Amino acid sequence: MSSALSVYLLDVAATRALVGSRDEQLLEVIRTNFAEDLERDDDSFSFEIERGAPSAYEALTAVVNGGPFSDKEDHAFQYGYAYRRLCDLTGSFLPNDCFTPHRGDWLSVVDEGLEALRITAVSVEEFSFSDFPEPLPWTHMPGCGTWTPQQIAKALEQFEATKAAGHAPPLEPDVVDAVMQCLDWMRYAEAREGFGVIGFRS
Questions:
Q1: What mean pLDDT comes out for the span 110-116?
Q2: What percent of the chain has pLDDT over 90?
Q3: Less Cβ crowding at N or C end of the chain, within 10 Å?
Q4: Which helix (H) or strand (E) holds 48?
Q5: Which letter, b or e, does each residue of 42-63 get, where b requires 16 or more Cβ atoms within 10 Å of its Cβ?
Q6: What range(s) does the DUF7691 domain occupy (predicted)?
């Protein structure tokens, strides 16, 4: 079974602040303009919804209002996907063809490539974690990780230091491509003050 990444360029602090913001205008815009998307998601998870999981809009409402959340762990995935929807609406989707689809431990393989270049400030495997803003409940799927502007600045400094030292470890071509794509994401973020990267693995 393969996995995919959804990676967004956005103002990290502003996006995370949407959680619990109680922004009714935002909810109304989503409900009005993205009804078909919400319905499509509900169709995808109809089995779970029939068994008590919140609908896509119900989950989104809970995320924006800061709760209440279902106390059932197997319903938490809906809140993770609702947060991804907020990132999709407020951020820019970044090209990720080196990661979608991918299988097995590919993210850790790319991390090893980053580390070989002495880039340790960021990790693509972090996108498999459950780094959601509080009070969102923990969920295994989707995974979520964040590269803050500070982490990105440090990672780019590390890469420049590696180049200046003439350090060029042998890497497989597909790993090189993936590392270069990560660097592209970071450069896009660096060009916009306060911007970082939020990624989801599903």
A1: 98
A2: 92
A3: N
A4: helix 46-50
A5: beebeeebeeebbbbbbbbbbb
A6: 1-201
